[in-house]
Amino acid sequence: MKEQLNRVLVPVLLGDGAQPVKIARRLYRRFGVLSHIYCSRTALSAHFCACVRIVRTPSYLQGDLLCQDLCAFAKEYPDLLFCLIPCSDDYKIFCTAHAAKLEPYYVMVQPEQLQEDALPYLYKEELPI
């Protein structure tokens, strides 16, 4: 399953600081996927992490402009499964406000849903049937 997800799953994390990097590392260890982090400033650890691609967003790129940028990014690769993960309260509000525009391109996932105790089957080799 790891090989199949590695080919089609593209996690897109929204947030500044260390939390997006932690989530990206967890997704890389489990599924071997490269995560894209949209942020205005990054944690120092992100610069040394091979499992992330940092997309620097200027501070004015918020609201509708950020939504357009995210949709344009997903439109470039229609065969991939994009997973949008807001890593701060501001980005959760953003995703809720722009859900109608983002949902055709992204599967919305909350960071809490990626914890080991919330989805234990994601951290096992065999999935339940």
List keywords for this structure.
alpha/beta, five-stranded parallel sheet, Rossmann fold, 35% helix, 5 helices
Walk me through this protein's architecture.
The protein is of the alpha/beta class and about 130 residues long. It has a single domain, classed as Rossmann fold (3-Layer(aba) Sandwich), CATH 3.40.50.20. Helices cover about 35% and strands about 20% of the residues. It has five helices and five strands. The chain has a five-stranded parallel sheet with strand order 3-2-1-4-5. Helix 2 (about 20-30) links the parallel strand 1 (about 10-15) and strand 2 (about 35-40). The two termini are about 15 Å apart.
For the residues shown, what is the average pLDDT?
80
Helix/strand order, N-terminal first:
HEHEEHEHHE
Task: Output the radius of gyration.
Answer: 14 Å
**CATH class value:** Alpha Beta
| SS strand fraction | 15-25%
Briefly note the structural class of the backbone: alpha/beta
Task: Write the CATH architecture name.
Answer: 3-Layer(aba) Sandwich
What is the helix tally? 5
